[in-house]
Amino acid sequence: MSTLVDLYPSRIAPSPSLSPRRDPVLHDPAGVETRGPLSRDALLEFERDGFVVLDDLFSPGEMAACLDELGALGRDEAVRASEEAITEPDSGALRSLFAVHRTSEIFADLAEDPRLVEVAHQVLASDVYIHQSRVNLKPALHGQPFFWHSDFETWHVEDGMPRMRAVSASVALTDNTEFNGPLMLVPGSHHSFVSCVGETPDDHYRSSLKRQEIGTPDPESLRTLVERGGIVAPKAKAGSVVLFGCNTMHASGVNLAPYPRSNAFFVYNSVENRVGEPFGPARPRPEFLASRSTITPLG
Amino acid sequence: MSTLVDLYPSRIAPSPSLSPRRDPVLHDPAGVETRGPLSRDALLEFERDGFVVLDDLFSPGEMAACLDELGALGRDEAVRASEEAITEPDSGALRSLFAVHRTSEIFADLAEDPRLVEVAHQVLASDVYIHQSRVNLKPALHGQPFFWHSDFETWHVEDGMPRMRAVSASVALTDNTEFNGPLMLVPGSHHSFVSCVGETPDDHYRSSLKRQEIGTPDPESLRTLVERGGIVAPKAKAGSVVLFGCNTMHASGVNLAPYPRSNAFFVYNSVENRVGEPFGPARPRPEFLASRSTITPLG
C-alpha cells in the first residue's frame, strides 16, 4: 500500500461520503487565460462542467482510417486472444482493446496527435504521458451499458494515481446518437469526490472491466450530484472529441441501434502525477491498464 | 395448435423474413375520418407511424394516486409472491405486475377510463376488452433494458391472437427522459411483419418476461426497418399516453437516472379478434398474460 498521504480515501470507510475536490481543475495558475488550442470559453466550460466537446477535431478521412484499423484488429485472432482484449461472452467479438497505442501504429499516431496532446498540456500545465489507452466497440443491438463511475477513483485506489491531474479524450470514431449508448456525464460532478464502499478483490480488473460493482458511487451521492448538475449525453459526431476530467462522473447505456458505436479513449496524465503504490490493494494492476514503467512524455 | 389459417407464420421457417401487414391499421372503413376523441391528424399519425403521443391525457393528481397505489402494491408481500409479479433478481423488488386491473381497483379504473377506451374504439372500430394489463417499474440506476420486439408476434404465436387488431396504451406515471430508459419505437415498422426464427420453449413466458430471445427480430430485418423509419423515443411527461399498434417494433434501454421510471400498460383487443389456440406451442400462456376466459367488453 502507498506510503503517501491519501488525499482521496475510498473503499476504506464503512459508509460512502461526498467530499470537495482538493486539486484544481485547470492546473496552470493562469486558469482560463492559459494559452493553447482551447479557447477561453472552452476552458471555462471544462472548469465548470468537468468536460467540453471539441467538434470536428478530426476529419472524416482520419476517422475512416481508424475504423479500418479497428476492423483489422477485430479480425486478428492473436489480438482477440491477448490479455489486452475484452471480448463478448457470446460471440467472442472484440469489445475493448487496451494499450491500443502499443499495438497499433495508427492509434499510436492518434494518441500522440498534437491536437490532443496540446490540449492536455494546456489543461494539466506540464508534460504528459499516456496513462491508459483503449478502443471501445459497442456492437449493434447488444452493446452493454457501463454503470456510473469516476475513473479517478479506480486509478487512485487500484493504480496509485496520487492527484486529480489527468484528462481523458474520447474520440468518436462513429456518430454518437441518443440510441447507441453514448457517453453520459454529470456536469459539475468533478468538483466532488465520492468515497466508495467495499473491499477491492484481488485482480479486480478481470471482472470490473466487464461489469463494475466495487468502486461505483452509492445511489444517494449520485442523486445529489445529478440534482446539482443533471445529466448530459453529447451527440458527438464522428471526428469529435469529448474531453473530460479524470473525476467526472460518467456512464453509458446500451446500444439498441442496428449499427456499432466505436470510440478511442486516451488518458493523459501529468508527469508530475505518475502512479505509485496503489492506495488500495497490495498488487497494482497490469501495465496495459496503467502505464507504470514506460513513461514517455509526449509532444 | 390453431386450426385457423395462419396469416402471420413465425418461429416456423428456418430463416427470418419481412412481409407486408395483412390487416388495416385503422379498422373503421372511414379511416382518418372516424369520429372519436382522436383528431384527424392524430389518426393520420397513428396510421403512418404506428403510434401517437397523447399529451396530458391524465392530470398530475390522477398520476400521483396511481403512483401511491403502485408503492402499496410493491410493499405488499403477497403481491410480490404472486405469479403475476416479476421481481428483481437481486433485491426482490417489484419490477412488473401483470393483470393489474384485476388486483387493483385504481388501475382497473384507469384501464376502463373512457379517455383510453374510446380511443381504442375509434382505432379498432368494435367493442374492446383488455387482453393484457401490467405496471412496469424501471428502478433507479439499475432498470434493465428490453430488446426490440413486436408484441403481436408473441401474442399471435404464444396466445393465438389471429389478426393485428389490438392497440396498446402506455400511460406515463412518471416523466420519461432521455436517461431513464423510455419506450423507443421504429416509426412505420407496423406495416411489416417480421417472421422470427427459433422454436418456442415450453413455458417460454417464464424466461421471456425477464429477457426475451425467441420472438425477437433478426438484425437484418431490424436494420431494414430502422433505415426506413429511424428510431423515436417520445419524452412523454407523466400523465401522457403513448398509443401504439400491436405490431409496432419497440424496445427500451436501461434506466441510468437516479429516479425510478414507472408506467401502466393496457392492451385493448377487438372482441372480434379474441385469442384462440396458439399458432405456436400446444399450451397457451396463463390467463394473466392473455385474457381468454374472462372477456368483458368495456365502455
Write the layout of secondary structure elements.
The structure is a homodimer of 299-residue chains.
Chain A: E1 17-20, H1 40-49, E2 51-54, H2 60-75, H3 77-81, E3 85-87, E4 94-98, H4 100-103, H5 105-111, H6 114-124, E5 128-138, E6 146-149, H7 151-159, E7 166-172, E8 183-185, E9 192-195, H8 205-208, H9 219-229, E10 241-245, E11 250-252, E12 261-270
Antiparallel strand pairs in A: 1-9, 2-10, 3-4, 4-5, 5-12, 6-11, 7-10, 7-12, 8-11
Structural features:
homodimer; 299 residues; alpha+beta; Jelly Rolls; 7-stranded antiparallel sheet; 3-stranded antiparallel sheet; 9 helices; 21% strand; globular
Describe this entry's structure for a reader.
The first copy, chain A, is an alpha+beta fold. Chain A has a single domain, classed as Sandwich (Jelly Rolls). Chain A has a 7-stranded antiparallel beta sheet. A 3-stranded antiparallel beta sheet of chain A has the order 6-11-8, with no helix packed on it. A two-stranded antiparallel sheet of chain A has the order 1-9. In chain A, a hairpin with a 6-residue loop joins strand 3 and strand 4. The longest helix of chain A is centred in the first third of the chain and has 16 residues. Chain A is globular, with a radius of gyration of 18 Å. The mean pLDDT of chain A is 93. The interface between A and B is medium-sized, with 22 and 22 residues.
